Amino acid sequence: RYYLDAEEVHLPPFWEPYITADNHVEVIRTQTLPLVISLNGHSLKDHIHDRPQPPVVAATPTKNASIRKEESEHVELVNIRKETPEEHALNRPNGIREAVIISAALLLLFFSLISPVLVIPWMIFVAVLMIAWGCWNLFRRPA
After folding, report:
1. At a CB cut-off of 8 Å and minimum separation 6, what does 41 contact?
2. Residues whose CB falls within 8 Å of the CB of residue 10, separated by 6 or more in sequence, listed in order
């Protein structure tokens, strides 16, 4: 661990030989630890290719590790937030399924023109239901 003015910083391990009593350091603030990008004239850009790749170490599983739920832990679902119209616009399906259903219903209406008289009302009824379902799912508001 390395500290700069009582603040922990991340220093690449191959820069340890360049640390002196009086150091010139350039630091970039990150979310976790500040990152040292330059130390006494040595930059990260200069050492990208000559750094040896760390060996791949397989993690050894611990034998007695377990995750237990604490007895004092109590989580309760209070409310489910409704989806906003903006979220619905981002996450909604693109409408291909509904378009295929409506197209099939129109094709069914076309075939009802050349079908026997006994099945015409049933074909029209099914086609109207398919068109109603497709239009409802295509143009409905988010729940």
Report:
1. 24
2. 2, 30, 33, 34, 35, 36
For residue 67, what pLDDT is reported? Answer: 47
Dihedral pair phi/psi, residue 58, rounded to 5°? -75, 130
How far apart CA 49 and CA 12 sit, in angstroms, is 14
The token duo for 4 is 């700069």
Sketch the domain layout of the chain as residue ranges: 2-47, 85-139
DSSP 12: -
Helix (H, G, I), strand (E, B) or coil at 39: strand
pTM of the model: 0.41
Mean of the per-residue pLDDT values of the chain: 77
